[in-house]
Design the sequence.
């Protein structure tokens, strides 16, 4: 086993009123692995993602990325890390600048990391091809794309810098189910081709079971269960995990109504 | 039938021309029955619900017929609709944080609904009835809930409050528009159970609009599957989900992640669902461009709904793998992960 890519140790984050949104959370992500964090609203999964991206400072705890202390990185050092650590947010409609073309938004993520404009433009075309959109989408505005197309573009933008880890925060949650499957397949294919690791935050149990190697179940700021996704799904050990799985509509279908 | 929607059409006038959101929808719900209306974004499922309630406003052109018992709702006077809305027909909207009045206590909002529809004698009786209703939707402390403002309640409790208001005047028809979509899965389970319980007691006709196949299965007796403003398949829900007749229903069910499907091998549907006004064809099958079974004839005319089993209809010209007059139809290869966006 190679060295872990990301190591989070005892992360703590409190918001006003002394509520611990994230309470002593530790986990690792290995190279090329997909780790899912699943839980309900307020469980701390998005706060964990934001701390990992250094969009939010942890109150205490350590974050190591490769051999660098991610938690202490500043300025140029942090920017170099961000090239290796990218993000796909939930809502692509608000994550793209509406006044820029898709291509300009993607190219920006390259020029900011030192690419010259012409090379960035050429690479943008390749990336759009690679996510199944085609280079012609470079000139379009975000408003001209459907939700699924925009999420492909957001994936292209995240992969532009050849990152080692991409954090996906509810990246397929806003998509129609008939489109969600395309994007999940795309993520799996890109992982196979590039060896990128994913930290996949979601509330959707079926999605995490499908996409993740390992899953962390969070409740009230704590990781309550951790294990291989298939195993957590089929033999949940923690009481909360069991409650969560039992609440899925597929499971309650037999319990309620009773008129059929 | 208590609620009968016949050949409903809804068009919106926009800057870019006319966008057809609902295109000839026909369904009915009887008392004590739950019809799940299942569709993706832009399918027209919510617009249909709002058209029934007369809530679409002046930019919408609505045609067809919506009957509540003997009353024709389309074209009814606004004064009559105002009496019916919140009375005989009530709505539970998706997001209770925007449907409840943020500046009024929950109890006062219930009292207002009860007094407006004259279902109680006076203010004192309304207060008592409001507490009963909050108890009925399982607030642990109804008196405290009545004194609360919406912001003091969690999302699940707000939705319970919205349901209490909806059932306040004993509606004959309840339209629930994605009422659990914004909720966590454990809270969603509780709200679905509440709907099922209330349904058993109140004997309403429940029209439950959702994008979620699992939710539709949990709550529905019958299902109406919508795509691009049309009904593509209707029937008893267990039968439709177990043996879908329309290629869209089948493909939608097939696209869902399931434990036995290896990663990256989901059976995705290529492309995206059409939205009103995007120029998709309205005189032919709108699913044909994404359909594995599409043949030339699919682009020539609209497939009428045909009965495939008792009470089970599908609007597709391909029946049991064959098109009448065309013979056997072979499915094309399943779509790759990301072709034809």
Sequence:
């Amino acid at each position: 086993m190679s060295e872990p890519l990301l190591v989070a140790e005892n992360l703590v984050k409190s918001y006003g009123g002394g509520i611990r949104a994230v309470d002593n959370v530790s986990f690792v992500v290995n190279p090329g692995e997909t780790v899912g964090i699943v839980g309900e609203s307020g469980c701390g999964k998005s706060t964990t993602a934001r701390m990992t991206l250094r969009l939010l400072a942890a109150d205490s705890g350590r974050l190591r990325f490769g051999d660098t202390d991610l938690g202490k990185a500043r300025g140029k050092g942090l920017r170099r890390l961000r090239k290796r650590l990218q993000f796909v947010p939930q809502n692509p409609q608000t994550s793209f600048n509406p006044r820029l073309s898709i291509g300009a938004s993607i190219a920006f993520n390259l020029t900011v990391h030192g690419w010259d404009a012409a090379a960035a433009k050429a690479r943008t075309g390749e990336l759009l091809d690679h996510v199944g959109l085609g280079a012609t989408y470079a000139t379009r505005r975000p408003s001209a794309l459907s939700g699924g197309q925009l999420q492909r573009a957001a994936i292209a933008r995240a992969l532009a810098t050849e990152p080692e880890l991409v954090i996906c925060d509810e990246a397929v949650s806003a998509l129609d189910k008939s489109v969600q499957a395309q994007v999940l397949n795309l993520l799996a294919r890109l992982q196979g081709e590039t060896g990128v690791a994913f930290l996949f935050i979601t509330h959707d149990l079926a999605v995490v079971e499908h996409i993740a190697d390992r899953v962390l179940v969070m409740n009230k700021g704590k990781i309550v269960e951790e294990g291989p996704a298939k195993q957590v799904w089929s033999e949940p050990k923690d009481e909360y995990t069991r409650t969560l799985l039992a609440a899925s509509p597929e499971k309650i279908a037999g319990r309620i109504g009773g008129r059929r | 039938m208590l609620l009968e929607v016949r050949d409903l059409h809804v068009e919106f006038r926009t800057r870019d021309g006319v966008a057809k959101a609902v295109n000839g929808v026909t369904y009915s719900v009887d008392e004590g029955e739950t019809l799940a209306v299942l569709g993706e974004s832009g399918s027209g499922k919510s617009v249909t619900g709002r058209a029934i309630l007369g809530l679409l406003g002046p930019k919408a052109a609505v045609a067809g017929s919506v009957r509540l018992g003997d009353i024709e709702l389309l074209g009814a006077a606004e004064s009559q609709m105002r009496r019916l809305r919140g009375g005989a027909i009530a709505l539970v909207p998706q997001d209770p944080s925007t449907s409840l009045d943020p500046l009024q206590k929950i109890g006062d909002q219930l009292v207002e609904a009860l007094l407006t529809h004259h279902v109680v004698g006076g203010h004192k009786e309304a207060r008592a009835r409001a507490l009963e209703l909050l108890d009925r939707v399982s607030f642990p402390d109804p008196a405290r809930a009545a004194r609360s403002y919406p912001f003091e309640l969690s999302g699940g409790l707000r939705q319970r409050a919205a349901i209490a208001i909806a059932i306040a005047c004993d509606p004959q028809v309840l339209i629930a528009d994605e009422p659990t979509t914004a909720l966590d899965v454990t809270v969603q389970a509780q709200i679905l159970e509440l709907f099922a319980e209330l349904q058993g007691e109140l004997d309403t006709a429940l029209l439950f609009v959702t994008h979620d196949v699992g939710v539709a299965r949990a709550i529905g007796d019958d299902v109406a599957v919508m795509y691009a403003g049309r009904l593509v398949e209707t029937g008893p829900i267990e039968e439709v989900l177990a043996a879908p007749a329309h290629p869209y229903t089948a493909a939608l069910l097939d696209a869902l992640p399931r434990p036995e499907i290896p990663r990256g091998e989901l059976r995705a549907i290529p492309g995206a669902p059409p939205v009103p006004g995007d120029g998709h064809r309205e005189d032919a099958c709108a699913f044909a461009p994404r359909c594995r079974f599409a043949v030339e004839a699919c682009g020539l005319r609209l497939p009428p709904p045909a009965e495939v089993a008792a009470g089970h209809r599908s609007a597709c010209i391909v029946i049991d793998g064959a098109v009448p007059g065309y013979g056997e139809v072979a499915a094309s290869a399943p779509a790759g992960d990301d072709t034809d966006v």
